Amino acid sequence: ELGMDNAAARVATLADTLERLIRDADAVPGGLTQRELEVVRLVARGRSDREIGDEIFVSPRTVNAHVRNILGKTNLKNRTELSIWAVDQGIVHRDHGSR
Fold first, then answer.
1. SS3 for 77?
2. Which of 35, 38, 63 is nearest to 48 (CA)?
3. How far apart are CA 77 and CA 68, in angstroms?
4. Cα separation of 74 and 54, whole Å?
5. Residues 88, 26, 44, 41: is their CA dihedral positive or negative?
6. 12-65 pLDDT, tens digit each
7. Which residue from 77, 79, 82, 83 has the least number of CB within 10 angstroms?
8. How far, in Å, CA of 15 to CA of 48, rounded?
9. What is the DSSP letter of 96?
10. Is residue 67 packed enough to be buried (19+ CB in 10 Å), middle (13-18) or exposed (0-12)?
């Protein structure tokens, strides 16, 4: 009578959506954001902070901050390890540069 059937269906739909979003976030290697994945791909191509910044329209300092965050999340030590990790995770491919 109060229209609760519609609300219950909406809550169920929102719960399903939330579960899917959580599952998709867990599927991202290292829990990286989309921006961080973009930076990883460019690092793996051997781009400098300045070149990456020019490509994604941020300062080299911001790129450096992204790289530091990525290294922290992935528990890696440097760009070389990050590049190898990116290939191992399927984020980039040796032959094509990126997915």
1. coil
2. 63
3. 9
4. 25
5. positive
6. 888 887 777 666 655 678 889 999 999 999 999 999 999 999 999 999 999 999
7. 77
8. 42
9. T
10. buried
H helices of the chain, in order, are 4-27, 34-44, 49-56, 60-74, 79-88
How many C-beta atoms surround the C-beta of residue 73 within 10 A?
14
Can you give the pLDDT at residue 54? 98
Q: Is the pLDDT of residue 4 over 90?
A: no
Look up tokens 């990286």; give the residue: 32
Which residues does 98 contact at the CB level (< 8 Å), separation at least 6? 41, 44, 45, 91, 92
Give me the pLDDT at residue 23, please: 63
Reported as a single tens digit per residue, the pLDDT across 57-98 is: 999 999 999 999 999 999 999 999 999 999 999 999 877 544
